[in-house]
Amino acid sequence: MFVQEYQAKRLLSRYGFSFPPGDVAFSTAEASSVAERIAAEAWVVKAQILAGDRGRFGGIKMVSSVSAAVAETQALLGSILVTPQTGERGIKVDAVYIERSVKIERELYLAILLDRFQRKLVLLGSPLGGAGIESVLAEQPDTLQRLSMSIDNAPDDDELRRFASGMDLNDALLDQYVQICRGLHQSVNELDALSIELNPLAIVDGNRLACLDVKMEIDDNAMFRHEDYAEIRARNRFDDRKLRAQSGYNYIRLDGDIGLLVGGAGLALATMDLLKLHEMEPANFLDLPPIASRSDVADACQTVLESPSVKALFVNAVGGGLTHCDTIAEGLITAHKKARITCPVVVRFAGTKREHGLTLLRNSRMPFQFADTMGEAIEILLRNMRA
Length: 387
What we know:
Elements: E1 2-3, H1 5-12, E2 22-25, H2 28-37, E3 43-47, E4 60-63, H3 66-76, E5 80-81, E6 91-92, E7 96-100, E8 104-115, E9 120-126, H4 133-139, E10 145-149, H5 157-164, H6 171-190, E11 193-204, E12 208-211, E13 214-218, H7 230-236, E14 242-244, E15 250-253, E16 258-263, H8 265-277, E17 284-288, H9 294-305, E18 312-319, H10 325-338, E19 345-351, H11 354-363, E20 368-370, H12 374-386
Parallel strand pairs: 16-17, 16-18, 18-19, 19-20
Antiparallel strand pairs: 1-13, 2-7, 3-4, 3-7, 5-6, 8-9, 8-11, 9-10, 11-12, 11-13, 14-15, 15-17
């Protein structure tokens, strides 16, 4: 689950990270209150969406009065912000973050992430940072440094200092940098985060490091340990373009028009490849786990169909594990009863309880179309899309 900037700053504030004073606003009235509460000569108004490059595409505004902060908030709230990371449809802005403007002397990049292959945490740091950092690092890859660390044990101070020595910092700033690295190691463990990115980590006020923007991804598998994440999940539930749904399936929204409900990640990828081969575009990636229940399937189906771009649904499942074909059929029927499915639905079942699942769907008198093979399913989809 990805976390919005204001949420990440709230979570990290307990670990001693330095942020400019700021708060979130969901309305112009709240924006006025936040700006008045923060003593400043200038403020920054930031659209809160789960995507980067906000500043280059109109999502970050500098203002010098409370009234200007309110006006920019009004302009941003409800607008659709489009950046290279949102896709062509963009993301609707439901909140802004208002913080005190600071004078930036230099921007750096610092991040920590989980390396699943090494089973270690990795620090990534560069003396360069700020907007367009991906392009900057692609052009100057030698500026990016890596340090692998144990997940469980605190990082070695000497190793951190050697890592920090490549950031072109004086002694006072180097000490702060090392402490920030320690804070990242502690917070990524205690918050069950998969990654935390500070960009920019800026030198401000002559001799101080401040985290001006934060991106964070939290491990969905650890949600049971964090009741305090309920509000974060609820607010991010339908805006996150890469999420693991509450019921346990993997879902990624894409820009096509063929909705996919597929059992297993490998089969899902193969299904997407087959669609692309026949010049059709998937509207999503969705991987049902082998323990999905009827309600899980129904929820997954509704999630796929919530996308307004979906013109047809392809259900491609091999019964196995604890999720047999009849369970998937029951989930489809449940989804239809909750919210009538109006688009064409093509079903291809194989594996355990295939015939029972097909019988349930046929007896439901819902407008399903059936295929024995993936090739037949593609032909049916093509006919539907041409109709």
